[in-house]
Amino acid sequence: QVQLVESGGGLVQAGDSLRLSCAASRRTFATGWFRQAPGKERDFVAVINWTGGRIDYADSVKGRFTISRDNAKNTVYLQMNSLKPEDTAVYYCAAGWGTGRGSSDFDSWGQGTQVTVSS
Prior knowledge:
Blueprint: E1 4-7, E2 10-13, E3 18-24, E4 30-36, E5 42-49, E6 55-57, E7 65-70, E8 75-80, E9 89-96, E10 106-109, E11 113-118
């Protein structure tokens, strides 16, 4: 398994931006972001493959969030713009071999980073 470390979370106001980072211990084929709000299931946010040629977003974040990667640094980023209170959650990055939207597509997970958006 690959070790993943997320960073960049914090407390912001609605309309602000944040950039999350996911640093991996080695190259990953596909890296995804998921989020989990209190009392809710973990939901897919975005995924990117090794080349960046395959990217997918959840409908709830499309047009506001951008996933990208720097393979030289083994790091994947999630740029989050126009944040809304409903984006409040713990954000997890995950590594796997597919670019699907299910948690089962990923076999390594980070510890998560809290994002809180106040209204």
